[in-house]
Amino acid sequence: MSRVTLQGIPVSAGISVGKAFFMNRRSFENVPRHTVPESLVSAEQARLDLAFRNVHDELTQARDKIPTELADHGTIIDSHIMISRDPKLLARSKEIVRDTNITAEWALEKAVREVERKFEAIDDLYLRERISDIRLVAQRIIKKLLGQHHEEEVVGVSNRVVLMAHDLTPADTIGLDISKIMSLATVEGGKTSHTGILARSLQIPAMVGVTDLEKYVNDGDLVIIDGLKGKLIVNPEEHELELYSDLKYQFENYHKSIIRECQLPGETIDGYRINVFANVELFEELPAVLENGAEGVGLYRTEYSFLSRADLPGEDELTDEYVQMAEMLAPRKVVFRSLDLGADKLAKVFGDLREPNPALGLRAIRFSMRHRDLFRQQLKAVLRASVTGNVALMFPMISGINEIHEAKGVLREAQAELEKEGHAYDADMPVGIMVELPSTVFIADVLAHEVDFFSVGTNDLIQYSLGIDRLNRHVSYLYQPLHPAVIRSIKYVVDAGHQAGIEVSVCGELASDPYCVPILLGMGVDSISITPQAIPGIKRIIRQTTMEDCKNLLREVQELFQVSAINHTVRDTIFRRFPEELTFYASILDNEELPA
Ligand code: PEP
Ligand code: MG
């Protein structure tokens, strides 16, 4: 029961104190290594039989749910099913139990290691890589043997817990029963990983990148999660519990005070107006959007409603969802982003794409163009919703002019189909693109004549400009939102957009950071779209500043070229003005120092 403090990356503000509950751990590293008495050998072998059988059944059920038109994507599951019924792996594991009297999970791990050694000797790269499938299936079986929790098992927890996991995919996170979870911490993840974004939307304190989480925290340990500073205290002392309950109280009071004025417009003291919209992942967030004073939805991440299901929604189902959304928000605007599937956002029906570099692979608009029917169906649903409210559409991860033409080509096909079917749509619905790639930045002046608006997705723009995987905690210290290249890129896009007479919005996490917002204001950004919970605090900052101050800060920052100097200047200036806001924020500028 010793006290330990762990550091991680704060991704969702707030404090929580509660009991730890592990949803998953890194499988092989945590396999318990015990021997068993002779009398239990056959019981261990029977556990192996059962776990193999259960996993085989689970995989078969998952395979059966794949629609026939997507049968191609079932081949990975098929290969996993074959592995799960491979008599050799099971027989060898049971043999090891018999010969060495060790537990079922340890024996299976050993059996897999033997196969690994055999595979290493094979020349054929393709065959050699198949070991990763064996490992995946074995991990699943080991998880079964260890009785580890799956997301659905959180339902069985009676009190709210602090959820711990090695990693949570966006699909895992939306599958959680949020009424049972007071906060969460994971080993994997970076500053703008989607799990963190979702935690903010769900208003639960969260931290990611907690390297030693699995080493020091056990189920049932009392832990404090400080989602403001990214600190996790295991088995805290009495005075720490008092300190944090005090901080929690102050945080909640601060929150109440900003909520009172959140419906006021985002307008600076000297009358400059910036629209403050919300980023939304799930339909259920809409009440929070309105309560927090959003002037509309500037980014609806439509792919999230594809993540938690085993099938694909049809056009009518999507239309219902989008119409409801548009109607609920009208006359406020809602910007539907077409599917941004791929990378860490994998829909179950498509299985794991198994790409060597998922962030550089088949994601976003590329994925949609590959699945053109699905894309057209989605665009038809957005178009049908366009007559029921104030609707706009944008395409993610556009890299150049051809992609815009291709995407618009599918939009025209969708319009033609709707005309044939007699469905109404708004032919003037604004169509924009997300600016998330350096290539797009450099030709923003050209692209601005092709679309109705730009929305700068800084999460990806930073990832691709600085070459930093946004999910990777090892390089998280290099994920620098105020890198001079990032500042110049955004400024260039804003100027190019304005020159062509189109609006420019910023919708990445940078726009919900109190340190960064004054800089965006100084650039003349027309709107920001941010996590709903950040709106009240950010609006307060906007309302208490002047455009002149923001322009001065931008000028000062543009003359600096070291990120540390920029961060220092920004922190200093903003903190002097808004000490309270900054006490209660998990800034993405934090943790920029080199890892120990
Ligand atoms: C972004 O990249 O900044 C963005 C808003 O899109 P997402 O976080 O969904 O990739
Ligand atoms: Mg993005």
TrEMBL record:
Top-level EC class as recorded in UniProt: transferase
Annotated signal peptide: none
EC number of the protein: 2.7.3.9
Record keywords: Cytoplasm, Kinase, Magnesium, Metal-binding, Phosphotransferase system, Pyruvate, Sugar transport, Transferase, Transport
Catalytic residue positions: H194, C507
Compartment annotation: Cytoplasm
Recorded GO MF terms: kinase activity; metal ion binding; phosphoenolpyruvate-protein phosphotransferase activity
List of residues binding phosphoenolpyruvate: R301, R337, N459, D460, R470
Catalytic activity: L-histidyl-[protein] + phosphoenolpyruvate = N(pros)-phospho-L-histidyl-[protein] + pyruvate
Annotated Gene Ontology cellular component terms: cytoplasm
Keyword Kinase found: yes
Family in the record: Belongs to the PEP-utilizing enzyme family.
Protein name: Phosphoenolpyruvate-protein phosphotransferase
Source species: Oceanidesulfovibrio indonesiensis
Encoding gene, per UniProt annotation: ptsP
